[in-house]
Amino acid sequence: MTELKSMDPAEISSKYTYGTWRKQGGWKPLLVTKAYDSYFEDANGKKYLDFSSQLMCSNLGHSNKRIIEAVTKQMQTLEYVQPGYATEIRAKVALELREILPENLVKYFFGSSGTEANEAAIKMIRLFHKNDRRIKIISNYNSYHGSTMGSVNLTGDFRRIMVDTEYTANHIIHGPPPYCYRCPFKLKYPECDLACANYMEYIIKNEGNVGGVLIEPVTGTNGVVIPPDGYIERVREITKENNVFLVADEVMSGWGRTGEWFAVNNWNIKPDILTTAKGITGAHVPLSLTATNSEIAEYFEENYFAHGHTYEAHPVPLAAAYAAIREYKERDLIPRSKELGKILKKRLEEIKEKHISVGDVRSIGLFGAVEIVKNRERKTPFNTYEDKVKGNPMMTDKIAKYCMDNGVYISTWISHFIIAPPLIINEEELNRGLDVIDQALLISDREVF
């Protein structure tokens, strides 16, 4: 205990706990002591504008009074009961979901994370198809769906390669993402003919035994990739024609982030399963949702639902979800995201025009990304997956450090950073964050060739 008393909380955290997606040596985390509205503070009292909503999850900002009061009241009334029982809050949240989800999604399973939501989707599809053995699931490269063994196999970026996934990988197939800026088909065919979507049909026809397709309607961590016109509609058409379930992973893109309750609403698409988490409680407490259509719901009326968790339908996070939904509705935060998104889009285009190190900018609602390159013509990235794994210096980290030094936090990845502020942010704060990013990009501009 003497050793612990002589160390600060940040040192204790780095010595005794794991930092995610990194080598552990050299991890020196910032000690955060307070968060409120669109800001958080460190131990020295320095204030930061939370310009990525932490991990694109604090959609309602921090320390939302309504959610805190709802959680406190629920803790005092019924802090936990096993999921085989009904609770009033479970029923209230279900009725709210019936109003805001795509109308075909009629039954819900609650977990604790987006990873768990996608695991549930995998299992539901395979249970549904246990007799005809249609156990294969298609997802896209350049995607992220979670870190457990099932969901990490769905993931299309390098993180699935870091672990031995052989025992389940045989039943997951990856296809090309709708990543127009780095489209492999455009190297030979400049005109977009939705080859990325059509190739999915080719996979279904030639693989056989495909039971589901799981996509992010708007790619999250891997770059806020917004699909080209017609892509989502074509994927929905292909899955229907081939009797394959379509799963929309809205863990990051849901809850007003794209200017709609859920990203699929931008294209008027109704998936068979929708998974989400993060913004469902504004990240105040963990909760996830796997919502299914009536066909799947009716199947389990007479067939065993072989899935569950100790904390499934936990009353405390459900209380947070109910309060969060009321906040989204009563503060008109969904249309607000769309309106502020117009400002974000305009400013990002101006930033791209100004900075030679910016290869592409993408945004929809209050969900945007800036992708930086060494050479615009060749689209040469500053860094690669290998750099990330080896712990090599990243240009995006240099930009993020400048922003932090100037009171703005952004979430970065390999060659891009994400702009996803709380939906409660005001126009002045939005522009201030973008001004800091504008200045930070002078760092990468100096390294282009």
Tags for this model:
449 residues; alpha/beta; Aspartate Aminotransferase, domain 2; 2 domains; 16 helices
Descriptive notes:
The structure is a single chain. This protein has helices at about 1-5, 10-15, 55, 65-75, 90-100, 115-130, 150-155, 165-170, 195-205, 230-240, 295-300, 315-330, 335-355, 385-390, 395-405, 425-445, and strands spanning about 30-35, 40, 45-50, 105-110, 135-140, 170-175, 210-215, 245-250, 275, 290-295, 360-365, 370-375, 380, 410, 410, 415-420. It is α/β, with parallel strands linked by helices. The chain has 2 domains: about 30-65 and about 330-445, Aspartate Aminotransferase, domain 1 (Alpha-Beta Complex), CATH 3.90.1150; about 65-330, 3-Layer(aba) Sandwich (Aspartate Aminotransferase, domain 2), CATH 3.40.640. Strands 4-10-9-8-7-5-6 form a 7-stranded mixed sheet, sandwiched between helices. Strands 11, 12, 13, 15 and 16 form a 5-stranded antiparallel sheet that branches. The termini are far apart. The model has no long low-confidence stretch (mean pLDDT about 95).
Short description:
The chain has 449 residues and is of the alpha/beta class. The chain has helices at 2-5, 9-16, 53-56, 65-77, 88-100, 114-128, 149-154, 166-169, 195-207, 231-241, 294-302, 315-330, 333-354, 385-390, 395-405, 427-445, and strands at residues 32-36, 39-42, 47-50, 105-111, 136-140, 172-175, 210-215, 245-249, 273-276, 288-293, 358-363, 368-375, 380-381, 408-409, 411-412, 416-419. The longest helix is centred in the last third of the chain and has 22 residues, at 333-354.
